[in-house]
Write a structure and sequence with these properties.
It comes from Drosophila hydei. It holds the Pfam family Abhydrolase_1. Belongs to the AB hydrolase superfamily. AB hydrolase 4 family. By secondary structure, the chain is an alpha/beta fold. It has a domain of 209 residues: Rossmann fold (3-Layer(aba) Sandwich), CATH 3.40.50. 58% of the residues lie in helices and 10% in strands. It is built from 20 helices and 11 strands. The protein has a 9-stranded mixed sheet, sandwiched between helices. A two-stranded antiparallel ribbon has the order 1-2. β4 and β5 form a beta hairpin. α15 packs across α16.
Length: 551
């Protein structure tokens, strides 16, 4: 019985054990299936999240593109947003009231916000609008700073009254070429245009032998001129000659006005060989004296003679008028100088300024060296054992260096500064007694404005200086496209000499006589201050006799 009582539980336990093992296998299979499902769910979630992120990025990209498109179509909306943000930042800065060592930052924040607002407006401005604003600003600058009426530096009296009455160009504004107002650009472009457009002039050449054995060339142009037509003597610049572009410009202008022209080529220039070692300099006017006498003898007695000098030619002519005042008044009726370096010291310093001025100066120094190289044979034998080193001179890079090593020594100056002082004109105007009209530009790269003797001219009886705001050195271009036939420099040249030399109504001669009376009276007062009373009385009697002769 006992055995029968125990046996059934053992069977039940065995059966339960068998069921437990089956359940374990089943649970293990479910567990593996769950793991696979979890792994699948994780991968699916990752792929879905990646797809969502890609979709969000695409949405953001499309939104940014739409915003950029809207900004391009309507930049004012972005400017308003930017301005609102700046106002918030400014309000935040003002609410903070931050200070740094007692210095308030409110003005600084306001200036920064103003700067950035302007920057945002300009940076998003359409290109055509920006170009229009730039052109409008340049037009305003051109009308205010460039186009101006020339300044006339002249003493009140007969000469100034005559100029304003007979020369309408002086009362009008000078309109430089709209797209070429810079001084160096005017200088270079004028030279290029004239050299390309003006033809070669067919002169009649005359070789004049001077007292010391040297020779100079005088080129005459008299075609179509009347026998009584006046004559104008032209003196070129530093290395210029009769075929230089600015000389031809004046020659054609004089020919159109019916006047004779003779161009004085300095020694060694114009294709003339040197017969003596001496060249030329701005302070020496001996050759000009001989040329003026020869031309005066060649012309008919009733033919009036005028003279004009350009650049260094103006220095030579000005020194002749100042040093030989009585002789000049006898031979010349009127004179004119263009773009003259009044103060040679300041002019030399100005032409050596970097960069463009220095390049122009190097070009002129190279022209001087080429002139010397063309006559090298005559100098090798003469200066072989002297202190003048020709090879070193040929390597000069500036005009002052050439003058220091050659010109000053050849004409007997101890130093180049002594030569420049002797050549300077601004302190010699009181000695001139021939009506002299001068044309200078305030932006001349060879002559600064502060070197023009405006105060001295305002006290002189015979000198009038016309100063234009622009024009460069022998430039004076005008018009949208500058014409070589009708330029400001040539128009002033023909107006002055046609009125002064033809003088059909005799008004210029009467004005000249009145000017000379004032000149003599001024000289008498100056001499009376240094002499005693009897000598002053003698001078007054001489002045009265001279007035009777003029009447």
């Amino acid at each position: 019985m006992f055995g029968a009582f125990v046996h059934p539980p053992l069977k039940t336990a065995a059966a339960m054990m068998t069921m437990t093992s089956k359940n374990r296998k089943l649970n293990y299979q479910f567990l593996n299936f769950g793991r696979v499902a979890v792994m699948f769910s994780h991968s699916a979630s990752r792929s879905s999240s990646a797809a969502v992120s890609r979709y969000q990025q695409q949405q953001q990209t499309s939104q940014q593109q739409q915003q950029q498109l809207l900004q391009r179509r309507n930049p004012q909306r972005q400017h308003l947003r930017f301005k609102q943000e700046l106002l918030r930042c400014t309000a935040r800065d003002q609410s903070g009231k931050s200070t740094c060592r007692g210095i308030h930052t409110e003005p600084f924040s306001q200036s920064v916000s103003m700067f950035y607002s302007m920057y945002a407006y300009l940076s998003h401005l359409p290109r055509l609008h920006a170009l229009g604003i730039a052109v409008f600003a340049y037009v305003i600058y051109y009308l205010i700073q460039v186009v101006k009426r020339p300044i006339i530096a002249c003493a009140e009296g007969p000469f100034k009254q005559y100029l304003f009455k007979k020369m309408p160009t002086l009362e009008h504004k000078y309109w430089p070429t709209f797209w070429c107002v810079e001084s160096r650009a005017q200088t270079v472009l004028a030279s290029l245009l004239r050299s390309k457009s003006l033809p070669r002039v067919d002169y009649r050449r005359e070789i004049l032998r001077l007292k010391d054995g040297g020779e100079v060339a005088l080129d005459w142009l008299e075609e179509g001129c009347d026998e009584r037509a006046p004559c104008v003597l032209i003196l070129p610049g530093l290395t210029g000659e009769s075929q230089a572009e600015y000389i031809k410009c004046l020659v054609f202008a004089a020919q159109q006005a019916g006047m004779r022209v003779v161009v004085f080529n300095n020694r060694g220039l114009g294709g003339i060989e040197l017969k003596t070692p001496r060249l030329y300099c701005a302070a020496n006017c001996e050759d000009l004296c001989e040329v003026v006498h020869h031309v005066r003898r060649t012309l008919p007695l009733n033919c009036k003679l005028g003279a004009t000098g350009i650049s260094m030619g103006g220095l030579i002519l000005g020194n002749y008028l100042a040093r030989k005042s009585d002789e000049a008044r006898t031979n010349l009726s009127a004179a004119k100088i263009i773009s003259v370096p009044w103060d040679v010291h300041k002019g030399s310093a100005s032409i050596e300024k970097p960069v463009i001025n220095n390049l122009l100066g190097r070009h002129l120094a190279g022209s001087l060296c080429r002139t010397l190289r063309n006559h090298l044979e005559i100098y090798r034998d003469i200066y072989q054992d002297s202190e003048i080193d020709i090879q070193r001179i040929l390597r000069c890079k500036t005009i002052k260096e050439f003058d220091e090593l050659f010109t000053a020594k050849q004409f007997g100056y101890a130093h180049v500064n002594d030569y420049y002082t002797d050549a300077t004109l601004h302190n010699k105007l009181d000695h001139i007694c021939v009506p002299l009209l001068c044309l200078s530009a305030a932006d001349d790269p060879f002559q600064p404005l502060d070197a023009i003797p405006i105060k001295a001219a305002n006290q002189c009886t015979h000198v009038a200086i016309v100063i234009t705001a622009r024009g460069g050195h022998i430039g004076f271009l005008e018009g949208w496209w500058p014409s070589t036939k009708d330029q400001y420099m040539c128009r002033l040249f023909t107006e002055y000499f046609t009125k002064a030399l033809y003088d059909e109504d005799g008004e210029f001669e009467r004005a000249s006589n009145k000017m000379h009376e004032r000149f003599l009276a001024k000289q008498t007062v100056q001499l009376a201050a240094t002499l005693n009373a009897p000598s002053a009385a003698v001078l007054v009697n001489q002045l009265e006799q001279h007035k009777l002769k003029l009447m």
